[in-house]
Amino acid sequence: MAGTSLIILAAGLGSRMNSDLPKVLHPLGGAPLLHHAMQAGRMLDPVRTIIVTGHGADQVEKAARTFDPEVETVLQEEQLGTGHAVRQAAPLLQGQKGDAVVLYGDTPFIRHETLEAMQAARSRHAVVVLGFEHAGAGRYGRLVTQGETLERIVEYKDASEAERAITLCNSGVICAEASVLLDLVAAIGNENASGEFYLTDVVEIARQRGLSAGVVTCDEAETLGINTRAELAAAEAAFQTRARAEAMENGVTLTAPETVFFALDTVVGRDALIGPNVVFGPGVTIESGAEIRAFTHLEGCHISRGATVGPFARLRPGAELAEDVHVGNFVEIKNSVLDEGVKVGHLTYLGDAHVGEKTNIGAGTITCNYDGVNKHRTEIGPRSFIGSNTMLVAPVTVGRDAMTGSGSVITEDVPAEALAIGRARQVTKPGMAVRLMDLFLSKKKEA
Ligand code: UD1
Ligand code: CA
């Protein structure tokens, strides 16, 4: 099928991270760096995505597949340079019609609008390179242009003083017809200061063959690559700034934006309200008009319109809240579905449970879902009332319109409309409190 192919380079060790984890798997916005590049590329609706792996190839491949099960990977056994890396994709791209775009697993901020501008520029040039203006002394490749034409790219190490003075720098992102790119990378040599096969050499080779090359520019912030933990932390701050601004542009109210932390895949609907100090882990969707109150931690959950969550709530993977559910303070919910209008106000753990509509869960309720080996389910019917401090020892079912007495340990199913009480009966001894106190006091005097 004709269409855009993505080649994402992710073979490097990233030695400056000082880590056992491959660099592209370090997390940014709750997702591996690699996913950010894949996300930017995905907006081009690619017909195929090829990841060039090397260091930690198995781990990198696995992470890539969680983002896109269709992804293809190719191993670059030795990292002999960016041109050599692209060459590894050649067997997979043989006969592929359409353009190829080269992206980098450690460069998470490229905007899809920028990639679209590069695609548009392909109508004018056989090879399009993404550049940026950089006034500092960065060791980037320099773009040597003549008018609208990009003549060649010279790596910093190989550049003359005059070339180093050029402020138009190479981001590394490049776009050309797949077959053309393959022809060009096949011709790259390694006679340079690093002894590497530079992808950047394709520009000069293209020019020698009479093909035109051009530059599209973007903001330097987009081309930010991550090489150290400090750069990763700075990138996290940049990611969060961008995510907060986007959320507000999309009509989400953030009471204290600088205290809210988003993930790459967070989705929040219009007119949702997010209080201070809310943290989004991966996999959260929030519908319009929901309210998340202060100090709430969310991960892998769905919150429907009209629901309120927090303050101080924790929703873990598989928590699904229907419309108008209320989850209050110090409540933890995991792998549980709460139907419309359910209330879980305080101090509760619900795990592996289903709660029917309009049921009220009293303070201190716990689903005892784990026996030390297996997890078991709790089923609670609609319009029920679970008394405060009920222990629901799973597997167990409470029927519709049923009740449990406070402090009950429920080990047997409760039928619909029944009241179940599972606790010791109260014993009351008249005058006993005073007699006991007297006894304690006299013992203390003797001692
Ligand atoms: C590259 C560009 C440079 C540009 C800079 C922008 C070349 C020759 N130079 O330099 O012009 O200004 O990026 O940041 O392309 N990789 C592989 N296999 C390899 C080598 C690299 O997968 O054999 C991957 C790395 O993991 C990394 C990326 O390609 O993600 C860039 O490689 P790197 O060695 O960092 O290139 P730079 O020297 O930064
Ligand atoms: Ca680099």
Characterise the protein shown here.
22% of the residues lie in helices and 28% in strands. The protein contains ten helices and 35 strands. The termini are far apart. With 447 residues, the protein is of the alpha/beta class. A hairpin with a 2-residue loop joins β2 and β3.
Topology:
Layout: E1 5-10, E2 27-28, E3 31-32, H1 33-42, E4 48-53, H2 57-67, E5 72-75, H3 82-87, H4 90-93, E6 99-104, H5 112-121, E7 127-133, E8 142-146, E9 149-154, H6 161-164, E10 168-177, H7 178-186, H8 202-208, E11 213-217, H9 229-249, E12 253-254, E13 267-268, E14 273-274, E15 279-280, E16 285-286, E17 291-292, E18 297-298, E19 302-303, E20 308-309, E21 313-315, E22 320-321, E23 326-334, E24 337-338, E25 343-351, E26 353-355, E27 360-361, E28 366-368, E29 378-380, E30 385-386, E31 391-393, E32 396-398, E33 403-404, E34 409-410, E35 419-420, H10 432-446
Parallel strand pairs: 1-4, 1-6, 4-5, 7-11, 12-14, 13-16, 14-17, 15-18, 16-19, 17-20, 18-21, 19-22, 20-23, 21-23, 22-24, 23-25, 24-26, 25-27, 26-29, 27-30, 28-31, 29-32, 30-33, 31-34, 33-35
Antiparallel strand pairs: 2-3, 6-10, 7-10, 8-9
The protein binds uridine-diphosphate-N-acetylglucosamine and calcium ion (CA).
